[in-house]
What we know:
The complex is a heterodimer.
Chain A: H1 2-27, H2 40-53, H3 55-87, H4 89-104, H5 110-118, H6 122-145, H7 150-158, H8 163-199, H9 206-215, H10 219-255
Helix pairs in contact in A: 2-10, 3-4, 3-6, 3-8, 3-9, 5-6, 6-8, 7-8, 8-9, 8-10, 9-10
Chain B: H1 42-63, H2 76-88, H3 90-123, H4 125-140, H5 147-154, H6 158-182, H7 186-194, H8 199-236, H9 242-251, H10 255-284
Helix pairs in contact in B: 2-10, 3-4, 3-6, 3-8, 3-9, 4-6, 5-6, 6-8, 7-8, 8-9, 8-10, 9-10
Amino acid sequence: MWSRWLPRLAVVANVATFIAIWEYVTRVQGLISPVFLPPPSRVLEGLLSLHASGELAAGLSYSAVNYVLGYVLAAVVGISLGAVFGGSRRLGQAFRPIVWSLYAAPWVAFRPIATIWFGFGRGPVIFIVFLAAVFPVLLNTAAGAGDMRLSQIRAGRVFGANRVNLYTKIIIPSVFPYILVGLEQAVVLGVIGLLVGEMLGSPAGIGMLITLTSATFRLGETFALIFLSVAFAIGLRSILRAAAAPYTRWASLSSGRA
Amino acid sequence: MTSTTPGNQPSTVAERPFGQEIPHQTLLSRVGERFSDFRPGSGALFASLGVLGFLAVWQLVTIVPGLTNPRFLPAPTAVFEALWEVLRTPRSREDVIATASAYAIGYFWAAGGGVLLGLVVGLTRVGRIVLWPYVWFGFSVPRVALAPLIVIWLGLGQASKVTLVILMAIFPIIINTSEGVRIAPVSLTRCASVFGASKLQVIRKVILPSSIPMIAMGLRIGIVRGYVGIVLGELLGSTRGLGVILKRATYEFDMPRALAIIVILVAMANISLFIFDLLTRPLRHQFPTLQQSL
């Protein structure tokens, strides 16, 4: 029993020691000025003050809308284009260089251009979220679409499946795990895109708050916001996993894949 | 996987090798070649056709009067002109070099430090217990959010840019390295120790070689992430570099110039990946699972 709890206890002790050292080093003058590295207590204060002033709620609601819109757009475009590129060999080959080069490109660089295209409001932020999130979905869907097995299609036909049945009962469940992996990666990348989009010139939102609080040296609030976005990303991924859990169990059973 | 085209498909059951999976051909997956596979040949033809077609459509769209505003979507020719001009002017050439050198320094440190830390975390129990929470956390934190802090702490010069590159690139490297070490096949390590290898020898001869594909993958991901770091750093606070040219171009609504910078950045990222693949090609013989062109 000891050995089961030991690793978790080790992590807790580890983190607690870290926080304690952090607090000590920044409180004791002469080591690290609390102006540059806020002590954990200051971070907590910052979180509470953001909440009290309403900035937190306003920023969260603004960011949430941007994120959802960008993510849904990325999912729709990514899945449809991925299915097309993965399904047709020629189309895939034709567009592969463009997609791969864009995938390697630092999409951060598109932020200023997005401002020119979409102005100064939600537009550029949604575009950056889309840009960051679309590639994992597209690439994973294409890989999934290209990985279909003829034997399963044949089996379906032997058992009398018509075209619709083929799609709903065989093709889609087979591609689904791949799509899910892509969507999961897209959740995290979308959060990063959201932050980048809002940090570099947005009127509102969590990213804007990060830039604002760091520029005005309210670093406690900045750290609080950073931790918040981590929690946001982790929470979203867990929600996605939980929502898709029943489907993945079934899909892995039917395709014989882990 | 053998290459298949419609013409070569064996037609009768008797001709098909027993048990071979033949990719099927429905609407969703005509000939099942994985999208991530890369093979020169007819593929390259279609690839170039695709790129040329894309450029041609783009040019046509901008030529039709009134269809697109040249302010928002300049013609490819204008972008190429601006690209040529950027490469020709010595001052902007210096900016390209500034960006490239900051990136190279950052990536060098990220690769070295990342592999080292990854090995420590993966191989030593102490390392794993002590360091793993921070590695995991560092990976989960949207490090882009730390960028303003880095600029505050380290100022507007080279230091903050290099630090950002290191920050962005090092975590995938650490995680992939430690994971690669962790999943060394147990049967092989046990076999080695049965044959009398000491712990150090097991590490040197079995674990390290078998973890090379994962390490290489981590390094590859790190290359791409490093570029995000350098551009972000330059956009946020810098006086020289490609990101600065980009920002200025967008302030002046000079779209051809801005797009030209993007082309340069995309080219730099892809050239880096290409060089990396070239350098790791000899490894491909021994490690067929080594990922290329991902």
